[in-house]
Known about the structure:
about 20% strand; alpha+beta; five-stranded antiparallel sheet; 20 strands; 15 helices; Uridine Diphospho-n-acetylenolpyruvylglucosamine Reductase, domain 2; seven-stranded antiparallel sheet; about 35% helix; Uridine Diphospho-n-acetylenolpyruvylglucosamine Reductase, domain 3; globular; single chain; Alpha-Beta Plaits
Amino acid sequence: MFAKFSAEMAARLEEIVGKGNVIQGEDIGMDFCHDELPYGEAHMPEAVVEAHSTDEVSHIMELCSRYELPVTVRGAGTGKVGGSVPVQGGLVLSLKGINQLVSFDEDAQIITVQPGMLLQDVKAEAEKHGLCYPPDPGEKTATVGGNVSTNAGGPCALKYGSTKDYVADAVLVFADGTVAKLSDKEEYASVIGSEGTLAVITQLSLRLVKKPEKEVILLFPFMDTETCLNAAAKIRESGFEPAVMEYLDTDLVEFSGNVTGNPVFPIEMDGERVGATLMVGLEGESDDELDEKMESIAELAEELECLDILVVDTPTLKRDTWDAHDAFHTSMEAGAKCSHELNVTLPQENIAQLVEYAKERGESAGIKVMCYAHVGSGGLHIHTVYDGAKEDFLPIMDAFAADVYSRCTQLSGSIVGEYGVGYSKTGYYRQAIGENAYGELSARKTAFDPKHILNPGKVVI
Length: 461
C-alpha cells in the first residue's frame, strides 16, 4: 500500500525544487491527469513537481522511496496508451523543464540533450550541422525522453532503426535516488522502452548520421492490399534499400484527404478504385544515383503489378506528401464522431492477413476500419471510426481490440507496437506473452524498483 501525500512531503519537496515548482490540489491542471489515449480515464495526482536538474530528480526520488510515494514521470503527455497517467495518484514528476541542449560533438556526431527537449528541436539542431537524427515518430512535439521511454519508431525505422539504436548513453536516476549512466552496466539497457517503470532518464546522448544529399518519393498504386505488400517484399528482395516504405489503405487516404482538403495519394486510376498505395522513399548522394535507382525499380513495374509509378521529386510535392501522411491521426479525430486507434507490430509477411482480419471484423461490428503500416519495421496502425454514440462505440471497440490483439499474437506479432503498453493494454499484454514471460518482467521490475513506486499500474517491464 502506497503512502498518501502529506504536508510534510510537500515541505520537503519545496526545499528541493522551490515552492513554485510544487503544485497541489485545485492548482493541478487537467493536462497532468491524462494523455492522448482516446476516451482514456483521467486520474488526478496528489501533487505535481516540476524538476530542473538530475540532482533535483535524485533528491525527489530518494524522498519518494523513503515515504513509498508512487511517482509517474511525464514529458509532453503525447502518448496514446495512458503511459504517463498517474493511475495510482501520488506524484507526477514533470521533466518538461529539463529541456536544454547540453553539448554537440560534430566530429563524433553526438548530440547530448535533456529529456524534456522536443523531438522537433533535436532534429532541427542536427540539421543546423548538416546531420540528421533519424527516428521519426509522427508526433514531433513529443519529448525525446518520452521517445526513448517507449522506444518510438516511425516511417524511417525500415532503414535507420528505432530510437534505441540512437541512444549512445544516458543519465539514469533509479527509484531510490541513485544516479548512474546507461553505459555503466549492460542490464541498464532495459530502461529504454520501459515506459518509466524502471528509472528516470535525465540526460541523453544521441547518435546522429549524415543527412542524405538527395531524396525522392515514389508512389505505387495497386488494386489490393495483398499485391501491394507483395510488391514491397519484392522491392526489398531486389536489393533496394528504401529509407521509407509505407502501406497506405485507400479508405484511409480518402477519409483523411476529405477532412484535410489535401488529397495527395491516388484514389482512382483509369476509372478504377485503387486498393492500396505503397509509398517508397529513396535516398542517394547524387541525382544520378537516384535516377539509376528509379530506373531499376521501373524495370520491375510489370513484376510488381503496380498500376503506375508516381514520382514526388519537388520540395513542395514532398512537403505536401508528408503533410498528408502525418495528418492520418488528426483527421480521424476531426472527421469522425467516434474514433480510436490500435497500434501493433508484426512480421511484414503477416501484415496483409491482419489488415484483412481487422477490416472483416470491423465490418461485422459496424465500425469502419482503415490502416497504414511501416512495412519494413512491421508497425501497423489500425484506425476505426463510428458514426453512432460514444456509449455504443466503447464496448464495440473493446471487443474489437481484444480480437485484433489476439489475432496479432497468433500471427507472431507484438501488441506493444510503437506506442507502448501503458495502462490501456496491460491485460491484453499479459495474456499475449504468457505468465512465465510476465513473471520474468516482474522480477526485473523488482530488481530495479523494489518498492514498485515508479509508474505503478502499468505494464511491469
